[in-house]
């Protein structure tokens, strides 16, 4: 996943299983072992100089089959309690988010 933001970016990975809504999978706003992606053995490397946030896993499994989306935002949405939330209208706000579909090589 690469992006072109000039402001400090906050990249996210979302996961979508068949017939299911998008769910937050992994984020880079400080590493948290509670991220679903970390618990499933995934990790992501955020290179701010190269403007990339690549998702990887040493060995994939059949249960990892899904569509993975990368979203990058110039701001992080937080509630009063400080918990991260999925940005509103993720798909509708394409001008504020750069999407990269991992499962589609084109």
UniProtKB/TrEMBL annotation:
InterPro entries: Ig-like_dom_sf, Ig-like_fold, TCR_variable_region. GO terms for biological process: adaptive immune response. The keyword Signal applies. Keywords: Adaptive immunity, Immunity, Immunoglobulin domain, Signal. PANTHER family: T CELL RECEPTOR ALPHA VARIABLE 16 (PTHR19367:SF18), T-CELL RECEPTOR ALPHA CHAIN V REGION (PTHR19367). This is Ig-like domain-containing protein.
